[in-house]
């Protein structure tokens, strides 16, 4: 009895429209969400044929579709890749997605339909398309703006070098910082300047494909510069004790899944980010921003130091009131000698010299894990890969 009450409550209070019809298309039950969606009062649609909810141009062929469905009933979805519309009582049409599932009761055949109004989604898609078109039109105009921005970056870099050069009491750590910053800034800036020159050239020839390619190179270089500056800012805050933690309970599994969706575009060709979870507990009490920085850095490293067409495994385990996250790659690995210095500031592995990086990331990660009262561990073999494990 309780199950029937639960099902009735689900039917009544569902935000999706739900319609139950017999094999001839007569509507037997319609939930309030469906009535509201189509502009009818409760009970007004009972006994009516479903064609009343379908635009006339589609209603004519709908009976044939129903006959075909009755011959071979099976669950199916409609509207994802088609322009499927519903018809309101006032004659207004609106886009919908519909899922159909057949069932039998007392020897009679019925169909239950789940209906979603996707008007807002369609509007968002149109807006996104318009934005994309407008963005393409602005590429050439923004080229000049980007040139001016690069000049400012060059000026900022020179001012930074001059200011640091005048400091006579810099210790060894600061000297290493200047060396790192100079090297890491030079490569992306050279890429940006080179790409801007080529964009100007391809603008004259009208080669949009090559323009787009070099705009992408500029974006990647600017993102790299931003990552460097973010690492420096994070390190500065950590050194000054200026990191304000905000602990909160959240679903760690959903949090990791969302982060991986964001990071998928960063993967190299053929790389796969595979996530699994073990255990019942998914709620953790941590600082979301700090947690994001930790995982983003470790997964970014796994992507960066792994070749194409390799799998990167992310696994979370809830056990014994602890929450553990593992990031396992099949990359270049870390030598035994380099492992001794892995969390030192500005340290770069001997086999990573030709790969972009500041040598700050793991130092920052280790400090963030410590702030969250966690533990970070790792295992690595050259040319076999590396596994990082953090436990809270």
Task: Give the rounded overall mean pLDDT.
Answer: 83
How far is it from the N-terminal to the C-terminal residue, by CA?
Answer: 44 Å
Instruction: Quote the beta fraction.
Output: 15-25%
**What would CATH call the class of the largest domain?**
Alpha Beta
Sequence stretches where pLDDT stays below 50 over 5 or more residues: none
What is the strand tally? Answer: 13
CATH superfamily of the largest domain: Histidine kinase-like ATPase, C-terminal domain
Query: How would you characterize the largest beta sheet?
Result: 6 strands, antiparallel
* Shape designation: extended
CATH fold type of the largest domain = Heat Shock Protein 90
Number of helices: 11
CATH architecture of the largest domain: 2-Layer Sandwich
Indicate the structural class: alpha+beta
Number of domains: 3
Give helix % range. Answer: 40-55%
How many whole angstroms does the radius of gyration measure? 29 Å
Order of helices and strands: HEEHHEEEEHHHHEHEEHEEHHEE
List keywords for this structure.
single chain, 392 residues, Beta-Lactamase, Heat Shock Protein 90, 3 domains, six-stranded antiparallel β-sheet, five-stranded mixed β-sheet, 49% helix
Fold blueprint:
Layout: H1 2-13, E1 17-22, E2 27-30, H2 32-38, H3 56-71, E3 76-78, E4 85-87, E5 93-105, E6 108-117, H4 119-137, H5 139-166, H6 172-205, H7 208-240, E7 247-251, H8 252-263, E8 272-278, E9 283-287, H9 288-304, E10 311-319, E11 322-328, H10 336-339, H11 361-371, E12 375-381, E13 385-391
Parallel strand pairs: 8-10
Antiparallel strand pairs: 1-2, 1-6, 3-5, 4-5, 5-6, 7-9, 10-11, 11-13, 12-13
Helix pairs in contact: 5-6, 6-7, 7-11, 9-11
């Amino acid at each position: 009895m309780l199950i029937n009450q639960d099902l009735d409550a689900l039917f009544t209070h569902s935000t999706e429209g739900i319609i139950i019809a017999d094999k001839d298309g007569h509507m037997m039950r319609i939930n309030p969400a469906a009535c509201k969606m189509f502009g009818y009062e409760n009970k007004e649609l009972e006994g009516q044929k479903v064609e009343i909810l379908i635009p006339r141009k589609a209603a004519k062929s709908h009976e044939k579709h129903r006959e075909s469905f009755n011959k071979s009933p099976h669950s199916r979805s409609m509207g994802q890749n088609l322009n499927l519309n519903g018809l309101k009582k006032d004659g207004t049409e609106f886009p919908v997605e519909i899922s159909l599932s057949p069932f039998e009761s007392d020897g009679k055949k019925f169909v239950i339909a789940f209906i979603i109004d996707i008007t807002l989604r369609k509007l968002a898609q149109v807006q996104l398309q318009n934005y994309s078109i407008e963005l393409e039109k602005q590429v050439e105009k923004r080229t000049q703006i980007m040139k001016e921005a690069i000049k400012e970056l060059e000026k900022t870099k020179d001012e930074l070098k001059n200011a640091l050069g005048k400091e006579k009491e810099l210790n060894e750590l600061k000297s290493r910082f200047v060396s790192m910053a100079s090297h890491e800034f030079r490569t992306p800036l050279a890429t940006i300047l080179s790409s801007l020159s080529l964009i100007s050239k391809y603008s004259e020839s009208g080669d949009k494909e090559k323009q787009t390619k070099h705009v992408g190179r500029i974006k990647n270089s600017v993102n790299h510069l931003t990552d460097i500056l973010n690492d420096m800012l994070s390190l500065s805050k950590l050194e000054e004790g200026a990191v304000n933690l905000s602990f909160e309970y959240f679903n760690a599994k959903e949090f990791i899944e969302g982060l991986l969706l964001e990071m998928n575009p960063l993967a190299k060709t053929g790389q796969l980010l595979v996530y699994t979870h073990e255990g019942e507990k998914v709620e953790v009490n941590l600082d979301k921003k700090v947690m994001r920085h930790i995982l983003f850095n470790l997964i970014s490293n796994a992507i960066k130091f792994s070749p194409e067409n390799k799998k990167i495994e992310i696994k979370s385990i809830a056990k014994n009131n602890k929450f553990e996250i593992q990031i396992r790659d099949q990359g270049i690995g870390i030598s035994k000698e380099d492992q001794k210095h892995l969390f030192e500031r500005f340290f770069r592995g001997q086999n990573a010299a030709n790969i972009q990086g500041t040598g700050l990331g793991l130092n920052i990660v280790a400090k963030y894990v410590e702030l969250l009262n966690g533990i970070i561990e790792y295992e690595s073999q050259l040319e076999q890969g590396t596994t990082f494990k953090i436990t809270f």
